[in-house]
Amino acid sequence: MSALPESLAGTTVAVLGGTGPQGRGLARRFAAAGIPVVLGSRSAERAEDAARELPGEVRGLDNAGAAAAGDIVVVAVPWEGHGELLTALKGELAGKVVVDCVNPLGFDKQGAYALAVEEGSAAQQAQAILGDSTVVGAFHNVSAVKLEDPEVESVDTDVLVLGDVREATDLVQDLAGVIPGVRGVYGGRLRNAHQVEALTANLISVNRRYKAHAGVRITDI
């Protein structure tokens, strides 16, 4: 385990929806890097059970408790409950960096496709709801299968980080970088989150065709 960036020293990361594949996978990697993690779930009992299965300093609480306990809060809940959950947690999330990795996708016989979001994207919806928080979009395109698999030592992908506050996007780039093989790359303002969220539909298509767990690499930087 390498030393954490100074920006993350003494920082606790909460993961809302931490019992789902993406949330569990991110929690596993953050905890393995030495960051204290709080898993959030609708059921505190489910969160506690999931936390016991992960390495490092991980505990489980209900979503409200996790939101209150985290310095950085990652939102990894299903799109269907996204707006409702964030509205309920406005108080707990005030003043915090909230990392939204939710992809508004639909599925039919032809596969995955991006859904239209009134605010423009899940990340923009989060910022519209959480006026007292700083929302950053990130971790949209990372394979949950690779994150969750302890046999995968290096998760070879870049993470596009989107936001309107430089200090917050720098922080989340540092957070991405604690995962072996991952690099956080600034991807623009929050208004550009839609195409990054939508790209997940393309990656799902790639994965089905090639039986892979594809990621994204940005060249020439």
SSE layout and pairing:
Blueprint: E1 13-16, H1 21-32, E2 37-41, H2 44-52, E3 58-62, H3 63-69, E4 72-75, H4 82-88, H5 90-93, E5 97-100, E6 105-108, E7 111-114, H6 122-129, E8 134-137, H7 144-148, E9 157-162, H8 166-177, E10 182-188, H9 193-210
Parallel strand pairs: 1-2, 1-4, 2-3, 4-5, 5-8, 9-10
Antiparallel strand pairs: 6-7
Helix pairs in contact: 4-6
What distinguishing features does this structure have?
alpha/beta, 6-stranded parallel sheet, Rossmann fold, 221 residues, oxidoreductase, P5C_Rdtase_cat_N, NADPH-dependent F420 reductase
Structural class: alpha/beta
β-strand amount: 15-25%
Q: Report on the biggest sheet.
A: 6 strands, parallel
- The CATH class turns out to be Alpha Beta
What's the mean pLDDT score?
97
Fold-level CATH name: Rossmann fold
The CATH superfamily is identified as NAD(P)-binding Rossmann-like Domain
CATH arch. level architecture: 3-Layer(aba) Sandwich
User: How far apart, in Å, are the first and last alpha carbons?
Assistant: 25 Å
Number of domains: 1
What Rg, in angstroms, do the CA atoms define? Answer: 16 Å
Count of runs of 4 or more consecutive helical residues: 9
Task: Let me know the number of strands.
Answer: 10
What proportion of the residues is helical, as a percent range? 25-40%
From N to C, what is the helix and strand string? EHEHEHEHHEEEHEHEHEH
Shape: globular
The parts where pLDDT drops under 50 for at least 5 residues are none
Strand order of the largest sheet: 3-2-1-4-5-8
